[in-house]
Design a protein that fits this description.
single chain; mainly alpha; MetI-like fold; 2 domains; 11 helices
Length: 262
């Protein structure tokens, strides 16, 4: 399937969903439109709310706050996870010692931690960054750890036979092996970084997309809630696209999937 055909198929699905939603919330073909419109609003009302936000310019400040919080959580969590993941993968005894503690920390529900972070760091951006960090770190850590451990033993043996030092092994063998695993987790953790920021804003903030959604929910503005979610989804897709560009740049040596050539 060509890239153009794939894009058209994806757009067609979105159009079908929006058309069905609009029909269900404005006509009697599916059910009671007043009831459906009350709980789900209408695509036209949601689009009007998004347009109003951007026309007034009020959305930009909230987007910037959420972007700063999400990017800090993403950057700090990813760097810490990559460093510790490589370190633990290269030190199996150390990894075995800390294994139960890492699993226990990963099992903690993040929403429960949000009020604690608010108590520790206040209502500013750092409580949101801390929550996003906990969501990003473990996703990237486990993938990097597994990626380093999945190094092809034949390639590793040949590299050692050729006299590579540990630094050269890290650069030319372990790092390329972990990159695919790492970027797979980064695509997932981008969304979780934004989720951490939005959930933190939802629980207590004066700005951000989570704050907008919470304010709309507080006055039963269903269109505003859905508008915030749509803006949030587009926001995450845009950031994920940026990660994809970096991935293509760093993994230029990786052969394309055969399925793309059909």
């Amino acid at each position: 399937m060509s890239r153009t055909t794939l894009l058209l198929a994806q757009l067609a699905i979105a159009v079908v969903i929006l058309v069905v939603w609009e029909i269900a919330s404005t006509t009697h073909l599916v059910g009671n439109p007043d009831m459906i419109g009350f709980f789900f609003s209408t695509p036209s009302a949601v689009a009007a709310q998004i347009w109003r936000w951007f026309l007034e310019g009020s959305i930009w400040y909230h987007l910037w706050i959420t972007l700063v919080e999400a990017m800090l959580a993403f950057a700090i969590g990813s760097v810490a996870a990559i460093v510790i993941g490589f370190w633990f993968a290269r030190q199996p005894v150390l990894a075995a010692i800390f294994d139960p503690y890492i699993k226990a920390a990963n099992a903690l529900p993040r929403v429960v931690l949000a009020p604690i972070f608010t108590l520790w760091f206040g209502l500013g951006i750092w409580s949101k960054v801390a929550l996003g960090f906990t969501l990003v770190f473990f996703i990237v850590f486990f993938n990097v750890y597994q990626g380093v451990r999945e190094v092809n033993p034949t390639v590793l043996s040949n590299a050692r036979m050729l006299g590579m030092s540990e630094r050269q092994l890290l650069r030319h063998v372990y790092w390329p092996s972990a990159l695919s695993w790492m970027f797979s987790s980064l695509h997932t953790s981008v969304g979780f970084a934004v989720v951490g920021a939005v959930v933190g804003e939802y629980l207590g903030a004066a700005a951000g997309l989570g704050y907008l959604i919470q304010q709309a929910e507080g006055v039963f503005d269903v269109a505003g809630v859905f508008a915030g979610m749509f803006v949030l989804a587009a926001f995450v897709l845009l950031i994920d696209w940026g990660v994809t560009l970096v991935e293509r740049r760093l993994l230029v040596w990786r052969p394309e999937s055969t399925g793309r050539k059909r």
